[in-house]
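Our platform keeps sequence and structure together, in a single record for each protein. Such a record has a labelled line for the sequence and another for the backbone structure tokens. Nothing more is needed to write down the fold, since each code stands for a local backbone conformation. For reference, a complete record is included directly beneath this paragraph:
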Amino acid sequence: MAYATYEFYKDSYGGDAIPLADFDRFSKRATEYIDMVTLGRAAAYSEEQDLLKKACCAVAEALKINEEGGGVVAESIGKMTRNYAAGVTNTPNEEERLSIAVCRFLLHTGLLYLGV
């Protein structure tokens, strides 16, 4: 079972990037990613601020962006065109995008701590 529902995603998180038809798939994958980076501790985590649900939504959106091929690296508006050479952009790679999403909500919870 995923940490976040579509209702939470729309109403509390304020998300609009993932349609209802795709949310279940992305939220389950996001939950699996969160369980991996927290070494399974997230499943037993009890918190009052919905941080785990928000992290699930953020990671789900990052997974969607990754599936679509990443961020925009070129754009054209009218006659103006902007291109960036490969490797010279500030666009995060797939793993960085997921890490940023999960850290945004879980970094200060202790769930991501890997030390002794």
Q: What stands out?
A: The two ends are 29 Å apart (CA to CA). Strands lie at 74-77, 80-83. The chain has four helices and two strands.
